[in-house]
Amino acid sequence: MEPILNVKNLTMKFGGLKALDDVSIAIEKGQIAALIGPNGAGKTTFFNCITGIYEPTHGNVEITPPGKATQSLKGLKPNYVTERGIARTFQNIRLFHGMTVLENVLIGRHCRLSSGIIKAMLKPSSQREEEKKAVYDSYEILEKIGLAKYVNEMAVNLPYGAQRRLEIARAMATDPFLLLLDEPAAGMNPQETKELDDLILWLRDNENLTILLIEHDMKLVMSLSDWIHVVDYGKKIAEGTPAEIKANPDVIKAYLGEESDDA
Ligand SMILES: Nc1ncnc2c1ncn2[C@@H]1O[C@H](COP(=O)(O)OP(=O)(O)OP(=O)(O)O)[C@@H](O)[C@H]1O
C-alpha cells in the first residue's frame, strides 16, 4: 500500500542555507509519527514545504488519501493543500483571539462549505441550511475535543492548554485525513500534556487520522509515536521505533544526549 504521505528528496534553500537537504519521509496510514531534532534542524520548514507555505527548491510531496489515487502537492497553495485533506497547527498559537471558540472552529470549517463562510455569515436564505450544519458540525468537534463548555467564550479567555486544543479543533474542522502538529505540547504543564497525549491517541483511533508531530517533549514523543524520524542540520539522520531511536548513537549525539534518560 502507498504511504499516506510520501515526501521525496525534499530540499529547501534560503539563500546559501540548506534548511532541508534531500529529506525523504514516508508516513503510513494510521501512524502516529514524530519528527524530532535540535532547534533549527528544519522541522517547521518541512511542515511549511508540505503545506504549501514554501515551495521546495527540489523534491516532491505526494499524498494518497484513503480511497483515493496518489497525487502530487507540487505548486499547491496552502488553502488547496487543506482542501486535499492536510491540516496543521502552528508552533505559536494562531487563534483569532477576538472571536469566540465556536467562531474559531467555524473559520476552519469554511473550506468545506460551498458558499464560503463570509456569505454564510451574511445569511442569504440559500446559505442558512449550510451555515446551520457548519455550526452543528463545529459544536460536535468541540464536544469531541473536550471544549464544548467554552463554546461561547472568547478564545483569548481560555486557559493555555485549552487554546492549544482549540487549534486542534480548528484543524479538525477542515476534515483532514492527515494532521500535522507543530510542538503541540509547548508550554503545557504535565497535566495538560497528559490530556494532549490522550487526545492525540483518541483522534488516531476514533477519527481515522494519521498524525505527524514535531515535538521537543521526548517523554510524550516516546510514549505516543509508532515511528520517529530525526533530522539534524537539514538532513535526515535516522528513523525507527522509539526504542531504536533512543538507542541510536547518532541521535543521542545530535539531539537526545542525557535527555534520553527520562524518555
Ligand atoms: N523564511 C526563512 N528564511 C530564512 N531562513 C529560514 C526561514 N525559515 C527557516 N529558516 C532557517 O532554516 C533553518 C531551519 O529552521 P526551522 O524553523 O525549520 O527549524 P526547526 O527544526 O523547526 O527549529 P525549532 O525546533 O527551533 O522550531 C534555521 O536555520 C532557520 O533560521
UniProtKB/TrEMBL annotation:
Statement: the UniProt record of this protein carries the keyword Transcription regulation: no
Pfam families noted in UniProt: ABC_tran (PF00005), BCA_ABC_TP_C (PF12399)
Keywords: ATP-binding, Nucleotide-binding, Transport
Domain of life: Bacteria
SMART domains per record: AAA
GO annotation, biological process: D-alanine transmembrane transport; L-alanine transport; L-isoleucine import across plasma membrane; L-valine import across plasma membrane
GO function terms (MF aspect): ATP binding; ATP hydrolysis activity; L-isoleucine transmembrane transporter activity; L-phenylalanine transmembrane transporter activity; L-valine transmembrane transporter activity
PANTHER family linked to this entry: AMINO ACID ABC TRANSPORTER ATP-BINDING PROTEIN, CONSERVED COMPONENT OF ABC TRANSPORTER FOR NATURAL AMINO ACIDS-RELATED
Protein name: High-affinity branched-chain amino acid transport ATP-binding protein BraF
